Amino acid sequence: MKKKITVSIDENILERIDSDVTEGKWKNRSSIIEGLLDFTYWEFIDSTVVIFAHDYKWDNRHYPFDIPKALLEVRKESIIKRQIKTFIKPGIKSIIISIPNGTRTIFEKELLDTFPTLNIQLLELDVSLKTGEALRNILKMPFTDKNIIISNGDIFYWDLDLKEYYDYHKNQKSDFSFCLKFVFNPEQLWNVRIHGNKIIEFVERPKASQMNLTNSWLYITTRDFLDSHNFWDYLEMDFFPNLPDVANTIWYIYSWEWEHIQNDSAYERVNGWLM
Asked: Whole domain around residue 207: which residue ranges?
């Protein structure tokens, strides 16, 4: 709900605002003021981000690097660091990252000095642990009692508006929301079939190419919902295909560049985007 207020603004500042509105940079005077206030004051005060980063998998081949995949650098900055910068734009304060056993020191060196004001928790797990079991371990940790935002540690998001996605999830009263991405090679990924704003089916690597919306591995849900549906081994193969039958599951389209960095060509594409 919005409330109307009166604001006094210096004439010189107002002239610059009006110039930006005329040039189409903003819709109107109110939108620029709201945008600036949102940027300064809006927070996910009741949300924790969970990032799965304990898996070394590299497209079914021998992993070609000697560090966890989330620590791979894309134009001199690691994937995990770029992800965290995306998540903290709207005010995220708490992040839990599952990491491979024995890698705590290198993750701490990469992240803790860069984000000293964040509550970053690192949970060491076996690299072969299934996603459902990994999530159950994560939910034993502090700050997981309300809204949960889940991501994979090998995903590159460019200009993701997490606040808009979160607001849509809340407005739709969704139990579990998926961020989807349009792709040209759906046969290589997890895909969904939709009806209206609802997801009605999940298909892994479909043989036909009519399903061009893929799961972009970014989800929003609540602790209460997860506690009621926490008996799956794999989120992707066991949990997601059953969601349309047990939940209000909606989708949000992510329209900018996105990449699942799972092989050499995906890694090269992302580096090329940032040249």
From this structure: 43-273
